[in-house]
Design goal:
Blueprint: H1 7-10, H2 16-28, H3 36-57, H4 64-96, H5 101-114, H6 116-126, H7 130-161, H8 167-178, H9 182-190, H10 194-209, H11 211-229, E1 231-232, E2 237-238, H12 247-260, H13 266-289, H14 293-299, H15 302-329
Antiparallel strand pairs: 1-2
Helix pairs in contact: 2-13, 3-6, 3-12, 3-13, 4-5, 4-10, 4-15, 5-6, 5-7, 5-15, 6-7, 6-11, 7-8, 7-9, 7-15, 8-10, 8-15, 9-10, 11-12
């Protein structure tokens, strides 16, 4: 967390979560094996219970007022970006690139919602392996970091082309609706200006707020598709897969609603937000400790190719969505 506050790293969107998984992987592939037996139970708790608690407390960063500031047009833009990006991830990832369903969904969730936090929140629903989660997080880091340098250039081009309306504010909404991580959104939008930064953060927060309904719908879809594929017995009777209810998603929504009432004192919110960052960093570090470089090499270039395709869609498709939705709804 201290490293994540260093200006040189923070300015490039390298948050505590990203650094935690990198450090975890370095330790996990070197000296950790000597302590794995003793540390294993604690690592498991970090990957499961602390992760879920961290996602719940993440709601303290959001309020329903954020959605009100952006208006329904912005909400529709975020929803379309999310659904189209995740749908492309599943279709291209599984059908064309032959990726495992869990890998494609994790990369899709990270690209379409809120980066590493979305990957971690989706993992319990899809029941992914540690190396699949790590690969998905890596793609978020690569293309999200590229966004920090690319979007200020795109803003200058948009000044001439006028694809995205409403000047810096409109471009800020475009950045918030298409860049992967919250930290990366802030870093990219601040390079453009304060008006863009304010609009980008609000757009991103609304996008993050969609995490809870996304997890509930994904859980129901996974149960239905899993049951449709499962067949048991000689008669071929189909066995339904149980819906994995992500209860922490309800907790996340409850915390958002509580925070929206503005009953909690600001120093308390700040303190708990810091604790939450620590919890999520512990989960990421534990994930890194559980991941071996050999498993990532085995995954090959296909996950990176999927993430590249999704990045291209976020740039081009996101621009079209941000252009046409205000026109159609205005």
């Amino acid at each position: 967390m201290a490293l994540g506050r260093i200006d040189g790293l923070a300015d490039h969107g390298l948050s505590a979560l990203t650094l935690a998984i990198v450090l975890g992987m370095l330790v996990g592939n070197t000296v950790y094996r000597r302590f794995a037996a003793a540390s294993g139970p604690g690592v498991q708790v970090s990957k499961q219970q602390l992760l879920r608690l961290g996602i719940v407390l993440y709601g303290l960063r959001l309020t329903t007022q954020d959605m009100g500031q952006m208006g329904w047009t912005g909400v529709v833009v975020d929803a379309l970006v999310l659904c189209s990006t995740f749908g492309l991830a599943c279709w291209i990832g599984m059908r064309w690139l032959g990726l495992e369903r869990e890998t494609a969904m994790l990369i899709g969730a990270g690209s379409s919602i809120c980066g590493a936090a979305a990957v971690l929140a989706t993992e319990p629903v899809v029941k992914a392996r540690a190396e699949q989660v790590t690969v998905a997080v890596a793609t978020v880091v690569v293309f999200g970091t590229l966004s920090i340098f690319l979007y200020p250039v795109l803003f200058q081009l948009n000044q001439a082309w006028g694809v995205i309306p409403a000047g810096a504010k409109g471009f800020g909404q475009y950045a918030g609706s298409t860049i992967h991580e919250v930290a990366q959104v802030v870093a990219a939008a601040r390079s453009i200006g304060p008006e863009a930064a304010d609009a980008a953060v609000i757009a991103k927060m609304v996008r993050v707020m969609m995490l809870a309904p996304f997890l509930l719908l994904l859980s129901a879809w996974m149960a239905r598709s899993g049951g449709a594929r499962a067949a048991t017995g000689a008669g071929g009777a189909r066995s339904k897969r149980k819906i994995t209810v992500p209860w922490f998603a309800f907790g996340f929504l409850a915390v958002v609603l509580l925070h929206s009432q503005q009953w909690l004192p600001a120093p308390f919110v700040h303190l708990v937000t810091e604790i939450d960052t620590g919890l999520l960093a512990m989960a990421m570090a534990a994930l890194g400790l559980s991941t071996h470089f050999g498993a990532i090499r085995k995954a090959g270039a296909r996950p990176l190719l999927l993430a590249l395709i999704l990045f291209g869609w976020l740039l081009a498709g996101g621009a079209l969505i941000n252009h046409w939705v205000p026109v159609l709804l205005g």
